[in-house]
Design goal:
The structure is a single chain. With about 50 residues, this protein is an all-alpha fold. The chain has one domain. It is built from two helices and no strands. The longest helix has 14 residues.
Length: about 50
């Protein structure tokens, strides 16, 4: 692990209530699943 770098945010919190009200969207993917899926996509991405 590296120490926090300039511009790094130590913690973030999002209230998606308005998003849900506006577009009926409520995120349901956990961070663990999302990161795993991103890594899988990135490894398969053809950088040609």
């Amino acid at each position: 692990m590296w120490p926090l770098q300039p511009g790094d945010v130590p913690a973030t919190f999002a209230d998606t209530t308005l998003l849900d009200e506006w577009v009926s969207f409520r995120p349901a993917t956990s961070v663990t699943e999302g990161v795993a899926r991103f890594v899988e996509w990135y490894r398969a991405y053809d950088r040609g």
